[in-house]
Amino acid sequence: MTVLLSIDGLKKAFGERQLFEIDRLELREGAAYVLTGLNGTGKSTLLRILAGLESAEVDNVSFCGAATSLSPYPRILREAVVYVHQHPVMFSTSIADNIAYGLNARGVAREEAVRRVDDAMQWAGVAHLRRSKPATLSGGEKQRVALARAKVLHPKLLLLDEPTANLDGAAREQVIALIPSLTATGSTVVMACHDRDLISLPNVERLKLRDGRLQARQNRLRKVV
Ligand SMILES: Nc1ncnc2c1ncn2[C@@H]1O[C@H](COP(=O)(O)OP(=O)(O)OP(=O)(O)O)[C@@H](O)[C@H]1O
After folding, report:
1. Could you tell me one molecular function GO term of this UniProt entry (predicted)?
2. Which one of 43, 71, 182, 196 has the largest count of C-beta atoms within 10 Å of its C-beta?
């Protein structure tokens, strides 16, 4: 698989406190990764750095084979990287408008946008909610709408911050079931999480933050149920 993003010498500190120092981070096209580590090791911070929401020191960054930077965060990354927050914020318009927002902002033609929104709502199992107001949604429905809102943009890199946090039962299972199909459409996915069922999904590689370093390991075995 082709390398999508590689970063050499990634260091993050908050004031005097060095949070992590990563020699090399390499993400391949269409691959799925879980980013694990104890509370406070810097999982969310790392995702936020990749999304251009947090500054960091880096030696080299390469995206799709071309040298680039994280600061200033270039347009090529702004268009290719989508970050989904643990508690997604939504506009108080309809769910369909929320999902269409990013497409409209990118100037996608109306007919094409409507088609993509419809497809994404079907995929996320939220088509019945298209005229609902976000405030009325459950946590699981909100997370699925947030995933649909990210998927319509066809991101090259999708960053999910604890997508199943605060969910249980069917709501959690519905979110977990959506994850494999994200990589099937070509997106590279990185999920920060503590959820064992996400961590043990088949063909998901594990990136672990520990003692300020990043360790990589692949889950080759399929999940045993
Ligand atoms: N803006 C900030 N200023 C100072 N310290 C910060 C800031 N943002 C995060 N931190 C600190 O950096 C550390 C890592 O935070 P982060 O949220 O990235 O951890 P995490 O691994 O995602 O944790 P959790 O599993 O609990 O979500 C924490 O100690 C946090 O308090």
Report:
1. ATP binding
2. 43
One-letter amino acid identity for 107?
G
70, 61 Cβ separation under 8 angstroms: yes
The token duo for 179 is 């994850």
Pocket-forming residues, ligand 1, beta carbon under 6 Å: 14, 19, 37, 39-45, 192
Residue 220 has pLDDT above 80, yes or no: no
Tokens of 192: 């920060």
pLDDT average, residue stretch 35-47: 96
> Domains in the chain, start-ordered, CATH in brackets?
3-218 (3.40.50.300)
**Å from CA of 112 to ligand 1 middle:** 39
Q: What is the pLDDT of residues 208-218, one digit of tens each?
A: 999 999 998 76
ipTM over 0.95? The verdict is: yes
63-70: list long-range contacts, CB under 8 Å, 24+ apart. Answer: 63/4, 63/5, 64/4, 64/156, 65/2, 65/3, 70/7
Ligand 1 pocket test: which of 38, 43, 50, 191 has the largest number of ligand atoms within 8 Å of its C-beta?
Answer: 43
**In 10 A of CB 216, how many CB atoms?**
12
* Contact by Cβ (8 Å): 68, 6: no
Q: Determine the Cα–Cα distance for residues 23 and 49; give it in Å rounded to an integer.
A: 15
